[in-house]
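Quick log. Single chain, no ligands specified.
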Amino acid sequence: MAETDAALRTLAHNVRSARTRAGLSLDELGRRAKVSKGALVALERAQGNPNFATLVRLADTLGVSVSALMEGRTEGRVRVVAADSVTPLWTGEHGSEARLMLTTSGPAPTEVWRWRLRPDDAYPSHPHQAGVVETVSVTAGRMILVVDGTEHPVEAGETATFDGDAPHTYRGTGTETCHLIMTVHLPPGPASTG
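-> predicted structure:
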């Protein structure tokens, strides 16, 4: 329980700091991210339990990575992250999961995700801000990548990339579990005022 409380405090601090840096009020951040002001107030007070979709919308709106909202300060030049040390941010109905392993630093960070997609599990994603590019590299099994309603099969040994500002879905297919590495390349700076 103490670990969860510490994670919520870190998230609260990071959201408040990113909102302040972006010069956004709670009302404006809520409007742009489509999150209620009450949920934002609770989040900045380290209360509640925001879901993955809410974290993605907040990160997109603030122009930061999801992990930038969740992680404390890092030390050292090299960071090694074990998959079993990272809590899944999404779990599917049939045992699928997505873990945000880390985010690179710099003006245009990249999120590195490790996914396990069981056959017939799917994760539908809302469009991200303009300039976000996603890449999926399947290391085992098969998946269907759906971008803007069009299906694209991706098999072990194949990599696909697409602009993340369209609706997209990751869906497991075949008879075995699909393992993939997904990267989300974020554009530099805060999201536009649109």
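The helical segments are 2-22, 26-33, 37-44, 52-62, 66-70.
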